[in-house]
Amino acid sequence: MAAPETTIWSMDRHTQAKHEILRRYLGAWIPILIHRCGRVRIIDGFAGPGEYEGGAIGSPLIALQTLLTHPAQKVQDAIRRGTVELIFIERDSQRSAHLQQLLVQQKRVKGDAPKLQPRIITGTFLEEMDKLLTLMERQNANGRPIPTFVFIDPFGYSHAPLSMIKRIMSLPMCEVLINFMYDEINRFLTVQYQTKEQHYDLLFGTDTWRQIALQSTNADERRRLQHDLYRHQLLAVGHARYVRSFRMRNEHNATDYYLFFGTNSIRGLEEMKRAMWGVDQTGGFEFSDFSNPFQPLLLTEPNYADLQRMLTENFKGQVVSVANIKEYVLAETPFVIFKQEALRPMELTSPPKIRVINPAPKRIKGRYPLDDMLIEFL
Ligand SMILES: C[S@@+](CC[C@H](N)C(=O)[O-])C[C@H]1O[C@@H](n2cnc3c(N)ncnc32)[C@H](O)[C@@H]1O
Fold first, then answer.
1. Residue 210 domain-assigned?
2. pLDDT at res. 224
3. Could you give the 3-state DSSP secondary structure of residue 120?
4. Do 286 and 335 reside in the same domain of the chain?
5. How many CA atoms, within 13 angstroms, populate the side-chain half-sphere of residue 80?
6. pLDDT, position 215
7. Are residues 280 and 310 in the same domain?
8. Has residue 4 been placed in a domain?
9. Rounded mean pLDDT of the chain?
């Protein structure tokens, strides 16, 4: 899709799915962060005008509404205390003015304004995030880091260099959700990459993408290699401990974009995966986990036989704790839940495929309540 030039534009189905993920994730994760740290900050780095043609709301208003209508008392208390920050960055002055106007309208409709005043910054993500990061780095140095979620949702590929993501991820409790515009990147990579070399170097944080451009002519392979390179760079250079990616395919069966999520928190990863699994997929698009590029898992029908196979392949002959299994499932597979769905049938089958080494005296078979239970994969 070419970047629209009007102040607002019509929404595609993928955007709907992306918004649903955002809503679910923030709804689940923000109360946990507030519970742990008392404060939280959300930065929407490519905020847009706040609404689409027809009136559907955009990401900044989704974040705002999720917070204002959140049922958890601790979220409302944090808002009242002024410890929830919302920052929206938008380069286009007409779009940022439109967003500003929507926020004013919203305040008027809602009457008494709560103590949550989103800050709209008209400027580029690169420059503004640089300033914010300087502040965040100072807060961290003073022992007062604020958990921060950064949503990076550009139209193209030239505005969010890996070095910036590395700075974000180097701070404690910071995480990123990145819209990786594969379609755009691929188009230029194949046609006219020579004029864009510097952008690609910055995007990937390396120049090894050139090998993909030079050597790979097969579209599927190119997609996989680009995906893998970006993921690798987020992990190896970008300081993200966990990275998940999800593929959005459009109605012509072409990959439009990937959502990459980078976090250092296994709990954050769990909530994001739940959000992704939970998205309503009746919109006709394909939305798949991209753990295995040759066999992407459609997030509609979890097949737990696949998970059992993965567990066996990974742990065969080993004794591991339930906590280890959980980390593996969350970090390395598309799945979220595993106890009843995978471990239980593996224990109850004959002959069993797993054995509990240190069962509590009255343990019921097929239950794994404790993280330190030890499981042998036979
Ligand atoms: C895909 S749209 C964002 C949509 C929005 N996140 C949502 O989900 O509703 C990308 C936005 O980024 C803005 N933009 C483009 N380049 C930018 C930059 N360098 N810094 C900040 N904003 C930029 C565009 O004007 C556009 O409004």
1. yes
2. 82
3. strand
4. no
5. 7
6. 77
7. no
8. no
9. 88
Q: What angle do CA 307, 17, 67 make, to 5 degrees?
A: 105
Cα distances (Å, whole numbers) of residue 200 to 89, 134, 193, 263: 23, 25, 8, 23
- Say what the pLDDT of residue 218 is: 78
Residue 282 above 50 pLDDT?
A: no
Q: Which residues line ligand 1 (CB under 6 A)?
A: 46-48, 58-59, 89-92, 95, 124-125, 153-155, 159
Please tell me the distance between residue 125's alpha carbon and the centre of ligand 1 in angstroms. 9
Task: Note whether residue 6 is domain-resident.
Answer: no
pLDDT tens across 39-89, in order?
999 999 999 999 999 999 999 999 999 999 999 999 999 999 999 999 999
**To which H or E segment does residue 116 belong?**
none
| Ligand 1 centroid, distance to 313 Cα (angstroms) | 43
Does a cis peptide bond (omega within 30 degrees of 0) precede residue 361? no
Protein residue closest via CA to atom 13 of ligand 1: 46
Maximum CA extent, the chain: 68
Least confident of 17-26, 165-174, 317-326: 17-26
Nearest C-alpha neighbor of 305 from the set 276, 330, 339, 341: 341
Reported as half-sphere exposure (CB side, CA atoms, 13 A), residue 308 has a value of 17
The tokens for 121 are: 């910054």
What domain range includes position 46? 13-298
